[in-house]
Amino acid sequence: MAELTLDTARKILDAALAKGVEKKLKPLVVTILDARGAVKVTAAQDGTSLMRAEIAHGKAYGALALGMGS
Predict the structure, then answer these.
(1) Residue 2 banded pLDDT, cuts 50, 70, 90
(2) How many beta carbons lie within 10 A of that of residue 39, not counting itself?
């Protein structure tokens, strides 16, 4: 598996946030982990609710542990 670079992680993050705006979703937090499970990037849009960052991290970690996308 290719290593996830910071530049690639930022591009994924920007695309995910843009898709949320396009779909008119409530404010998002996006967390991207590397293959070790370490946070590569995370960002929260203005107006996210309490605990949203923790939920995003848990969802990303669970997907990684199960070998699935989220």
Answers:
(1) confident
(2) 13
Q: Does 1 fall in a domain?
A: no
Global pTM value: 0.88
Tally of domains within the chain:
1
Closest CA relative to residue 43, chosen from 5, 13, 22, 11: 13
pLDDT tens digits, 8-46: 999 999 999 999 999 999 999 999 999 999 999 999 999
Residue with tokens 């970690």: 61
Residue 50 Cα distances to 3, 23, 27, 66, angstroms: 32, 22, 11, 26
